[in-house]
Amino acid sequence: xxxxxxxxxxxxxxxxxxxxxxxxxxxxxxxxxxxxxxxxxxxxxxxxxxxxxxxxxxxxxxxxxxxxxxxxxxxxxxxxxxxxxxxxxxxxxxxxxxxxxxxxxxxxxxxxxxxxxxxxxxxxxxxxxxxxxxxxxxxxxxxxxxxxxxxxxxxxxxxxxxxxxxxxxxxxxxxxxxxxxxxxxxxxxxxxxxxxxxxxxxxxxxxxxxxxxxxxxxxxxxxxxxxxxxxxxxxxxxxxxxxxxxxxxxxxxxxxxxxxxxxxxxxxxxxxxxxxxxxxxxxxxxxxxxxxxxxxxxxxxxxxxxxxxxxxxxxxxxxxxxxxxxxxxxxxxxxxxxxxxx
Amino acid sequence: xxxxxxxxxxxxxxxxxxxxxxxxxxxxxxxxxxxxxxxxxxxxxxxxxxxxxxxxxxxxxxxxxxxxxxxxxxxxxxxxxxxxxxxxxxxxxxxxxxxxxxxxxxxxxxxxxxxxxxxxxxxxxxxxxxxxxxxxxxxxxxxxxxxxxxxxxxxxxxxxxxxxxxxxxxxxxxxxxxxxxxxxxxxxxxxxxxxxxxxxxxxxxxxxxxxxxxxxxxxxxxxxxxxxxxxxxxxxxxxxxxxxxxxxxxxxxxxxxxxxxxxxxxxxxxxxxxxxxxxxxxxxxxxxxxxxxxxxxxxxxxxxxxxxxxxxxxxxxxxxxxxxxxxxxxxxxxxxxxxxxx
DNA sequence: TGGGATTTCCAAAGCGCTTTAGTTGCCAAT
DNA sequence: ATTGGCAACTAAAGCGCTTTGGAAATCCCA
Lengths: 342, 342
Known about the structure:
- The structure is a homodimer.
- Chain A is α/β, with parallel strands linked by helices.
- Chain A contains 12 helices and 12 strands.
- The structure holds a DNA duplex.
């Protein structure tokens, strides 16, 4: 069923039918209800390609998810972010277009998306400290919102981020308050902006107590379970092992726990762990009492909000870049305790 | 840059330019190369909406991911499947359109996708034992491939699945061979087809040794870490606890391990665990020696292949439904050992 | 009762592409 | 010199919608 057929069946012009359905005022209420009823009866939905062609809008948002070409790792946080964004889109009748690319092809993917006209805007995932995509998207003139930030980006842009620096500063202070002095950081790749900021928060907290960071206690790698395990394993073998550690993701925390338990140590007594918790739906951090003490911020909610920001930006493209900084809650669980007496 | 501009700049008709770029034979090689060069220079890419309108093809595949309305859980396996499918699509110049819906709205989502004409085909995720979507998609006439199967579906359809029954039958036999007799099954929700099949494999293996399944040892729920923990915790508190258990996902296995270790038991000695391993990129099952004994099958590869099957089906819609059954490997890791002497 | 204002509807252009149905020019064959 | 055939190109219709620029019908008030 298309507009032409529907309008013929109603004995009205395509114009009137179109206007009736799209809520224009120059159509009487009587015919509007008649049209709406007919549309429902015949399950008529405007063809999006035709509408897009006529309006110049695609009614779709692009998400480009980078897959690091070396490791081929898909960000586990991604699924929940998408779910959140998806909620916002379906409420606004937008589609979500996903493109999976290795970082080598990423620039081309954006240009393509632009030239093909498949999307009205883009969510940028996983920004690096110095991320070329921001300049690129400015250049090609496609509205975008970054999930995270890019510390060294020259141009201004819209973003939504967790206050990673503050979160890790607080987490570190918390451990210091418990008497820990050798605190390790099992970070994500520090080319990633979030990891860079977390490191700075960690260092700031140490500095505030007059402590210098020990390079041997700072590790950084992709946030997989295996890497969390390996990093922790290595840390525990040091001559002067840490009494506490911060991990950058719940997934690496799981790996860290494995290493801790394998060694016969007890979490929260022999060694403390604070992790960042994105509130992944399949990986809840405990039910009543959190398993891990954590800096918590829902990535799903971030998805919802980032999507809403982008839709806003598309509706009014001339607005100045919007930014939103979410604070992470520091929740106390069973994985931390006072530093063991030496 | 659009076709009209490009053709004017070249002093050719739109027809010729279009044909040159789309590889039609009725254009001389000389002009073809000229046209291609110009297209590259001006970064011309056909507008997909216009092309779609003209050809009737969207050059996009829809993925509808159900979010169970009660628990709002996003399938953790999903990200890797998408990554695999994405590889196939980008090679074939297809886009991927994601729709996140709660199961209540799912039927409507498919109809909408069809009527709006945004996609040429659909991948069905997470089929239930008796899944209404198969009849629905037949009815609305949109090509589709199911990732998994629906045991009670009346109509035939294309699918790609892991041999879940065989995998769990083998896994159970493996444990039986090790002397285990009380073997628990920590399954996914048994409304899901894969979980249903795994249960049958488990039961078949027991039956083959003349053992009757003990209902107290069979649990089924959403495959989260928390549920894996809870189920295992409960099992270990039984008067006659199992000496081995099968878990339906790597995520629940992590929870199971937590329960085991919390109790001070040693995995592979005091209790054995076999899990299904989807080879999630962020959750590798060990590096050289697998952590868990597992039935392994790459969900990413499944994504690649399912997508390829769908593209095939779209290219030739009249073909009979294609099916592909992937066998899972049974890999032996550190989580299993002989049944402890009572 | 007439004429402007208002309401309600419509014909047709246009979005950027593909594709059908030619047209043109050229050469070989008659 | 004509014809037929082929290679190389083009004009224009059409995909299904929105939207511009009217036109017709109705209404209101002098």
